[in-house]
Amino acid sequence: MERKVVTKPQRRTGVREAAAQATRDSILKAATKVFAKYGYDGGSVEKISKAAKSYDRMIYYYFGSKEGLFIAVLEGIYQRMDDAEAAIALDASRPVDALTEVIRFVLGYYRKNPEFVTLLNTENLHKGRHISKSLRAREYSSRAVAIIAEILASGASQGLFRKDLVARDIYLLIASTGYFYTSNRHTLTAFLGEPLESPEAIAHWEDFVIETLLRTVRADADEPQDDENNSTTSHEDTSKWQKSQPAASRARSS
């Protein structure tokens, strides 16, 4: 008599994991929008679960608390910027071009991702008390600073950049020019009476920032000049710099 072997149906763990990840991602996406719109205090769990078409209990299940969810949102926006920056094709052997591309990326990223700026404004109002609890936040800044450090080292070895530059300082300078312009564009437009969000204004600011940063890092930036016609920088050195610098990076005078 043959014995029938009854096999239990295999659990579709892969499908469950995919569904769980989809739910988690949906909550994170909704939370990013809600926190950006209402801030941390106004971004309630109820609003987030409704926007995610989920349930309050799922937020606590995946993130532990509202604060845990907010920290995950902050980590997420940092990671997306880090991933985007890592995808830029940079050639450190051409340091002027590479630094120009980094500047363009940072300014463009802030402009194209206003939620990033809004969420950071919210966290700064809370004195960084949430992001300080993140174990991953420093991972994202370290890559950006490392990229700039490599570019600066290459520029210094070629005699194009100063040798006393600190990568963190250049990173902060680039970030501040992009962040401030984006976060304060509405009030500055009213205060200055100029449309800072127009394509012309944005292009002019980008060019000006690039020109300013390149002048800051260039090897002869701190060398004194005797007079108009007797510069300590030789014509040959100046030509070398200008050939390395993309014409588009020179700020327009208009």
Structural commentary:
By secondary structure, the protein is mainly alpha-helical. It has two domains: 17-64, Homeodomain-like (Arc Repressor Mutant, subunit A, Orthogonal Bundle); 70-217, Tetracycline Repressor, domain 2 (Orthogonal Bundle). 67% of the residues lie in helices and 0% in strands. The chain contains eleven helices and no strands. Helix 1 crosses helix 6, helix 5 (95-112) packs parallel to helix 8 (167-183) and helix 7 (137-157) crosses helix 8. The longest helix has 30 residues, at 13-42. The radius of gyration is 25 Å and the shape is globular. The model is unreliable at 224-254 (pLDDT under 50).
Q: Span between N and C termini?
A: 96 Å
How many domains? Answer: 2
The CATH superfamily of the largest domain is Tetracycline Repressor, domain 2
Largest sheet: none
Overall form = globular
- Total of DSSP H or I helical runs spanning 4+ residues: 11
Order of helices and strands: HHHHHHHHHHH
- What is the arithmetic mean of pLDDT? 84
CATH architecture of the largest domain: Orthogonal Bundle
The structure class reads: mainly alpha
Provide the gyration radius in Å: 25 Å
Organism: Variovorax gossypii
Biased composition (Polar residues): 241-254
Keywords: DNA-binding
DNA-binding region: 44-63
